[in-house]
Predict the structure.
Amino acid sequence: MAKRPWNFKRRGSKRGPQEGQKQKERKGRPQPAEIATAPVAPIPITFRFRPRNEPQSQAWGLFAGVDILIMPGPAGAGKTVVAMALAAREVLDGYADHITLIRPAVEAGNQRLGFLPGEVDDKLGPHYAAFFEALGCVVPLKGPGKFPAENLKPQALAYLRGRTFRHEIVVLDEAQNCTRAELLLVLSRVGEGAKLIVLGDPEQSDLPAGKGGLPWFVERLEGAAGVGVVRFLDEHVVRHPRMSGWLKRLRA
């Protein structure tokens, strides 16, 4: 029997001598596996923040030169939004690895819902919703170009013992519901390359009278090296155009 001038490489193949030429032609072309594993350019994250009052502008300009930024003031003045904008900008620019979110697990007023079900993250969810609302004002949280979820790390205040914050932006919100000991606990966690942002409304503490440590914290640290204090007032409230007038009447 005459020998075939080619060898079949796969059983059942119907390729002939022309296959060799086709393979040569395919050399240099990206193969399906190569196309699938080719690096894809990341979708840029849209950052959108514009200061809406003078204290927000002050905080934006001050943050680069301090290690601790304290922002006391009334609710609705945009403290959390500017804090999350500062933190997100540091992460996007590569100056910080992630944002650590801390909020005391204190319920408002006399409201007591009891124990929340689930793991620690489930229990923290209701307390930390305001962080994500504020962050959503400055960067996308869904869809293409969203802010990476792995760069956000909610942390329970109760489990900070032994922790050290390194190369991260720590945002402590609702600090009026922290005692002096709790504020000292958070401050003493700050390590190399980390920055701390503390914000709260001293007028809306849900702790027993005299237990809130925020006024003490501001008084003792203002003027210290590496510390900046930006105060928000009723006239800086941006949540509703008539809010500042309402607050002035209630506090008169």
Observations:
- Strands lie at 68-72, 98-102, 152-155, 168-172, 195-200, 227-229.
- Confidence is low (pLDDT under 50) at residues 3-13.
- The longest strand covers residues 195-200.
